Amino acid sequence: MSALAVPGVQPSVRTGLSALFEPRGIVLVGASSTPGKLGAAMAESLAAFAGPVLHVNSRPAATPGVFGGIAEAVAASPEPVDLAVLCVPAAATADALREAAAHGVTAALVCAGGFAEAGGAGLEHEAAVRAVAAETGIRVLGPNTSGFFVPRRDLRASFVPGVAGLHAGSVGVVAASGGVNHVLAFHLERAGVGVSLGVGIGAGLGVTAPDVLEYLAEDEATAAVALHLETVADGPRLLDAVRRLSARKPVVALVVGRNDVSEFAQSHTGALATSWRTTRAVLRQAGAVVVDDETALVDAATALSGRRPAPREAAAVGLVTAQAGPGLIIADHLHGAGVPLPRLADESQRAIAEVLPPLTFQANPVDTGRPGPGYDRVLGAVADDPAVDLLGIYAITEPVLDLAAALKDAGVDGVPAVIGVDGPECDVWRAREAAAGLGVPVLAGPSALARGLAALAADARAQHLREGEDDGAAARWPSDGTGPLSGPWDEDRAKALLDALGIRTPERRRAATRAEAHAAFAELARAGGAVAVKLLDASVLHKTEIGGVHLGIDSAARLDAALDALEAAGASAFLLERMAEPGVDLVLGARRDPVFGPVVVLGVGGIATEVYADVAVRSLPVSRRSALAMPDELAARELLHGFRGGPELDAGALADAVQALGGALLANPRIAEAEINPLRVTQKGLVALDAVVIEPADTPLTVEEDA
Amino acid sequence: MSALAVPGVQPSVRTGLSALFEPRGIVLVGASSTPGKLGAAMAESLAAFAGPVLHVNSRPAATPGVFGGIAEAVAASPEPVDLAVLCVPAAATADALREAAAHGVTAALVCAGGFAEAGGAGLEHEAAVRAVAAETGIRVLGPNTSGFFVPRRDLRASFVPGVAGLHAGSVGVVAASGGVNHVLAFHLERAGVGVSLGVGIGAGLGVTAPDVLEYLAEDEATAAVALHLETVADGPRLLDAVRRLSARKPVVALVVGRNDVSEFAQSHTGALATSWRTTRAVLRQAGAVVVDDETALVDAATALSGRRPAPREAAAVGLVTAQAGPGLIIADHLHGAGVPLPRLADESQRAIAEVLPPLTFQANPVDTGRPGPGYDRVLGAVADDPAVDLLGIYAITEPVLDLAAALKDAGVDGVPAVIGVDGPECDVWRAREAAAGLGVPVLAGPSALARGLAALAADARAQHLREGEDDGAAARWPSDGTGPLSGPWDEDRAKALLDALGIRTPERRRAATRAEAHAAFAELARAGGAVAVKLLDASVLHKTEIGGVHLGIDSAARLDAALDALEAAGASAFLLERMAEPGVDLVLGARRDPVFGPVVVLGVGGIATEVYADVAVRSLPVSRRSALAMPDELAARELLHGFRGGPELDAGALADAVQALGGALLANPRIAEAEINPLRVTQKGLVALDAVVIEPADTPLTVEEDA
Predict the structure, then answer these.
(1) Which of A627, B68, B170, B362 has the fewest beta carbons under 10 Å from its own?
(2) Which portions of the sequence form the region Disordered (chains A, B) (predicted)?
(3) Is the distance from CB of A422 to CB of A445 less than 8 angstroms?
(4) What fold, for A310-466?
(5) 10 Å Cβ neighbour count for A232?
């Protein structure tokens, strides 16, 4: 029986997240008047709501306005009741939901814990709730969350009393944890931007983070979104939601779980964590700005709640600072974040020199010293500089200085700006209020300003890399000469696949016998140079470890010695290859992530990927721009650009290889993983020295294990 | 003529930094009544001072109380005038200082810029000021600083009006920049701890950061010190001051200049930056807690203003959190910072289980859920756990929860504790005030709490590593068979030095001719295994790059081929060595840092040191504990502990090598640098495969160049 089948109870039906976040009436089940009880705290929070809030308690005291049942409460409501807020134990939840749904309620907040995360009877409670939700269609937020709030509607469904003071703001908060939702709301309130909607997902039994992200895409009051993630249940759906939302407004994401705190995490979320590094990488690829902690999340969301920057590969900052010391902190941070502070054009510097004394630094940062008359002209000259995409302004507040007025006088509407101020709390607030009128965010402190500016640049870059997202990255299995889709895949066959994908391999010969090996050696050695001889066996994944690789074979005698050794190691077939030129070794792999599905991983060979976890990751399909940007994300990128007279990476060829290998994985569901290790950067271009293709899907890429 | 030679002007003389920070009377030179002028802002800030503040202006209007000269002002003062605050241009500074000194003033604050950092005439102005200071002994703070403040004495010598609202606190701030001094003061005020003394060093012409650190060591109002550094003029003196101060109170240091912003930095400081990485490492060695930005500096100083932890190699945190989501953020951060969260003892968990419902996680972190009755017993059980050194408490504030009262009831006086809270601003302040009564610092937000706890652990570790600081690390040049102190140093001689220092080298033979080389080969090969043959020439630093190293020589024919090649590369002498076992290569160097003097640098071989800048640095002499801790500071430390069946590092032998090599550099002033590259970790212990000794001092270690 669906809620729609109940006639006459509700005059109209509001469904989906509108019922949750824009209810006409609310029924609070488990309402209490005993101070300290959750049901009492929730009642107090909901008291500010303009529509009807009906209180239900199964053991109603003789309190006026408290109903003994949901039916009675809904019937007494002057408005349709769309939302049920449940402050009842886990064991009582399913029944309450069923009763609510039966009376036209289409959304519910379930605060209690004690479901799947607790094990035991909790598993049954959760199954019962799922069954009711499936049966009735009621949308459940929770369980195990402290709630949500929409300050502009005076709707605060939270048992944290402090939410009463939250003002309407422009940042949407979607937090895995109810607690973190509150933390972010209080910090955003303190930052002067406030929240449009704050949601703690909790166990995510019904309403999930992607659901809320989709809702926020349409929510006009939301200028930017702060996303907090612990574990991800449905990776592709999350990425899709972030992709579509970030196309419309900035999304900043904090992913918890860099380090192994799995026992505690599991007790909290009831789910296993996936790779932190992969989650961050694919969120970034989907258009999010990824940050390191909740301090940075608040600074970034605050900065991005103002004017959004245009897509730009490397958005450059023009920085105007009234104090050199804080300016140095900001410049240092921006350099570290890869955000350019370009030298201003001569014309801009001339304009600035007309205002500032010659003692100050005027090239960028512009050190104004104590701002005086003409300060607005300095701001204007920096904002108008052709190399400047973003304007950063820092000052210790002074009564003589009205930054917002100067900014207004400067007329720099076209350039996204962020102000950093320090001073007594009241001066900071005055600056915030003045700048709010111009839509310019204000952050307190040089590092906060730097984090905000870096977030603007990261958003501009993420949007730039998404352009042309759909070109040429589709599933593609080569038709030319690679045999059936299925294995077994020995190195020769894996390399034939690479050949067909256009990824260069060394010239090679397969040999089933020693005689064939000698003939192959003679052929390969004819052109000069030594030969590599390897064991050829699809069942051996790590040839080197069992002595299955012999390099630098330059004579028949050495070949015989190598063949002896390979036969001793169990070889019944051999692969002979011309030795490759020297160069820098990369690792390129495509595999199926348990959460996000097909991904490609690029790293530097040797210890870099494993010990330093220095990898670039993309979900598939990957756009050409995004593939081209992968090597630049490696900490060791300088190795790829003529390091110590070494070779220069052909970035286009690498992007080709990334897209081709990724396309093959997408096209062939039998393949669990394909890895080229090493993929060598040489003076003559990229060459794949070894390759492994694995099926079925049971072996994750080792480079993706976080340290 | 020194100030002391002027008779009769002052009844007594107060000298040194007491005159600056505890003046009896002040003369303000360049006082103004024109709003917006520096001299007016300074006059306003100084107005709150209880002692006499005499105003001087060379063009006095008919304003009562403004004197036309310093002499006149000092004569009119009812108290001795110890401090002159100068708001006059650079060109007028030296004369004003001279006049002040002549009338018994022993300290001065010089705010103006336009000295050496400006070049040109500024150089002359600076020379003049230096001359006056040298002649009269007057202590000059500045030039180019916005001043200092001692809120508890109502002494605020700053032209930033907001300082009027700063309250007396317990953190001493020593900032390279006047602006950053103010930033830190405002942030510490907001954090609820406030400053005891805040100083912007500016150009540091007279009073330097070490001077103020020494003063703060004796200042009873100062519980912890926040240090901001841009460039360091006198490295050894700074380290000495930090060493002595941190032995008494915690020191937190922020070093700006990770990235190259040299042009702007130079315009600001007039000095060249030294290595950021070295500065941080040696500060840590000297006992400071080193942080990454000013947000972390404030959080760390706030946390360390409470009870100081006992020295401990790895101080462990017991974390009690009322919300799991923020708890996960804290635990994740602490794990990343290497701070253990040990599983609580069964007894502690039993005590906790008596209070908390079975659904919560109780092993550490302890997830209390919404705190209720018995919460104090949970805190007590965690604090009393034998594995717990530090107590972290987190909660979103609620009216029902008085953390400070619970903490008091728990009676956990013995364990340093930090509270993290979130909620409306007024609730956070209430929590701060309540906890202040117990001497427990309060931070806002889970990441802030984590940063604070990590700072406590870092302080405990720094103090632990300093114990036994003076043992066995002295200058020591081996007397046995290494010839004269001076070079030239070819590889054979460098290795003889290592032998004498007790650092193992492979068995080797020197050969002046091919015949000698063949004889040496026969001898070395007798024991089995191949031989390395190298060019032997003290003038060649990079043998490999010119083909001067031939490995794996296993026959007379191959030896001849190698000798041919070496002769072609210019060799007139050869070094033959037995090939070493495989293993993991380290780099160990001792060199003279231009700022900090003798240092040792340890890194992993290959690209790790250069590309990832993964190095551990120590100033010399280095204590055994500190030397032992070096490999653990490498990001790649897992390589040294049986990585993939590889060898295990003998940490004691490495510490021996660090101290021996460092001792040799300390003992022999002729040596600029000694580097062992590689120093291989093998199953049979450490072995030095190549060594270079360089004199004179003109070639810095390349691994110390920051990326």
Answers:
(1) B68
(2) 467-488
(3) yes
(4) Rossmann fold (3.40.50)
(5) 25
Average pLDDT over residues B593-616: 88
**pLDDT level of residue A702 (50, 70, 90 thresholds):** very low
Determine the average pLDDT of the residues in A667-696: 93
Distance CA A211, CA A208 (A): 5
Q: Is the pLDDT of residue B7 over 50?
A: no
B167 and A CB contact within 8 Å: no
Strand partners, A679: A586, A688
- Residue B266 reports pLDDT greater than 90: no
Q: Which residue has 């110390």 as its token pair?
A: B704
What's the pLDDT at B295?
97
* Residue of A327, A424, A446 with shortest CB distance to B162: A424
Q: Give the model's pLDDT for residue A706.
A: 37
| Concatenated DSSP letters of A331-353 | HHHHHHTT---PPPPHHHHHHHH
CATH number, domain A507-578: 3.30.1490.20
Residue of A nearest to B120 (CA): A359
Please, which contacts does A357-361 make with residues 24 or more away whose CB atoms are closer than 8 Å? A359/B113, A359/B114, A359/B118, A360/B267, A361/A324, A361/B263, A361/B264, A361/B267, A361/B268
Provide the shortest C-alpha distance from residue A146 to chain B (in Å).
Answer: 10
Contact B422 A186 (CB under 8 A): yes
Name the CA dihedral angle for A176, A181, A184, A189, rounded to a multiple of 10 degrees. Answer: 160
The architecture of the domain spanning B309-466 is: 3-Layer(aba) Sandwich (3.40)
- The token pair at A31 is 């309402």
Paired with B381 in beta bridges are none
The boundaries of every CATH 3.40.50.261 domain in chain A are 166-305, 310-466
Q: Using an 8 Å Cβ cutoff, are A205 and A139 in contact?
A: no
Q: How far apart are CA B80 and CA A135, in angstroms?
A: 88
**B680 or A113: which leads in pLDDT:** B680
Rounded to whole angstroms, how far apart are CA atoms B590 and B659?
10
Which CATH superfamily groups domain B166-305?
Answer: Succinyl-CoA synthetase domains (3.40.50.261)
Q: Where in chain B is the domain with CATH 3.40.50.720?
A: 1-144
Over residues B510-543, the pLDDT tens digits come to: 999 999 999 999 999 998 889 999 999 988 878 8
The residue-averaged pLDDT of B190-203 equals 96
The answer to whether A422 contacts B183, with C-beta atoms less than 8 Å apart, is yes
The answer, for A396 touching chain B at a CB cutoff of 8 Å, is: yes
pLDDT of A61: 62
Query: Residue B201: its chain A contacts at CB < 8 A?
Result: none
CATH topology of domain A1-144: Rossmann fold (3.40.50)
- Give pLDDT, residue B472: 54
- CATH 3.30.1490.20 in chain B is located at 507-578
Chain B residues close to A89, C-beta within 8 Å: none
B584-704 sits in which CATH class? alpha beta
Q: List the single best residue of A163, A264, A349, A545 to mutate versus B (max B Cβ within 10 A).
A: A264
Chain A contact set for B604 (CB, 8 A): 607
Q: Where in chain A is the domain with CATH 3.30.470.20?
A: 584-704
Report residue A126: phi and psi, to 5°: -65, -45
Give the model's pLDDT for residue B225. Answer: 98
pLDDT averaged over every residue in chain A: 90
pTM of the model: 0.94
* pLDDT for residue A651 is more than 50: yes
Contacts of A336 in chain B (CB under 8 A): 258-259
- Name the segment(s) of chain B with CATH classification 3.40.50.261: 166-305, 309-466
A264 touches chain B (CB under 8 A): yes
More confident residue, B37 or B281: B281
How far, in Å, are B543, B569, B571, B579 from residue B547 at the CA level?
Answer: 6, 7, 10, 17
